[in-house]
Write a structure and sequence with these properties.
TIM Barrel, nine-stranded mixed β-sheet, binds SN-glycerol-3-phosphate, binds magnesium ion
């Protein structure tokens, strides 16, 4: 695993293929790749028996036929849910993927990967620790490394404990007091903010601290142009059918 090098190209497909396919399913990542993307963001949390899997929300209702808090259920139950029909009939029966299943697709194609650690509330440290351990196992000998990111400093701290050499990025949806020092204290390689926060002084402050400045979720060409002019290092987008990563 080459953990020293920055792992991501500029354009990163959000949740696989944005809204064109059911988010965080293997079908979505395949569709994003068909649109030319070679780097993907996903959201990962733990089942009740500690299996890392892909899901954005804490609860199952919006993006599957399950109910309740996903992290309360064992993987044997979660893996039988339909995470595709809510989106459209073409994806009926698409399963929730484990991180292991996604890793086979990502590593097999030598794609870049941003794993957003999205813990079930109250499980931030544990989720970071388990996902860190799992990534070391799955990416071992691949010559690749993903980027970890999280809105929760504790999740990044957990990943740092078990996988210290895998790069980390602090996600921000506001520029709270001390955000830059927080990212530095976590040994982050990047700050990834809501794109509306990433003005020129913010880009410059991140770069002056030796980190990359990335933004989510940019779906508008004018906004993308302005951010590129400001010198951001990466854009996470839903609009995989509009922005060509080439
Ligand atoms: O990782 C960037 C972005 O995915 C963060 O927000 O809510 O889409 O996971 P969210
Ligand atoms: Mg995310």
């Amino acid at each position: 695993m080459n953990a020293q090098a920055w792992p991501l190209p500029f354009w990163i497909a959000h949740r696989g293929a944005g809204k064109l396919a059911p988010e965080n399913t293997l079908a979505a990542f395949r569709l994003g790749a068909q649109h030319g993307y070679r780097a993907f963001e996903c959201d990962v949390k733990l089942s009740s028996d500690g299996i890392p899997f892909l899901l954005h929300d804490a609860t199952l209702e919006r993006t599957s036929n399950g109910q309740g808090v996903a992290g309360d259920l064992p993987w044997a139950t979660l893996s039988r849910l339909d995470a595709g029909s809510w989106h459209s009939r073409a994806f009926a029966g698409e399963p929730l993927p484990s991180l292991e299943a996604l890793a086979r697709f990502i590593i097999g194609n030598r794609y870049a990967f941003n794993i957003e650690i999205k813990p079930t509330p109250g499980q931030a440290l544990l989720t970071g620790q388990v996902v860190g351990r799992e990534v070391l196992r799955l990416w071992a000998d691949s010559g690749l490394a993903p980027l970890f990111s999280s809105f929760e400093p504790e999740a990044l701290q957990g990943a740092r404990e078990t996988a210290p050499d895998i790069p980390r990025g602090l996600l921000l949806d506001n520029l709270r007091e001390g955000w830059l020092a927080e990212a530095q204290a976590l040994g982050c390689a990047a700050v990834i903010s809501n794109y509306r926060l990433m003005d020129q002084p913010t880009v410059d402050a991140i770069h002056a601290a030796g980190m990359k400045a990335l933004v989510y979720t940019v779906n508008d060409a004018e906004a993308a142009q302005a951010l590129i002019a400001r010198g951001v290092d990466g854009i996470i987008t839903d609009a995989v059918d509009c922005f060509s990563p080439a």
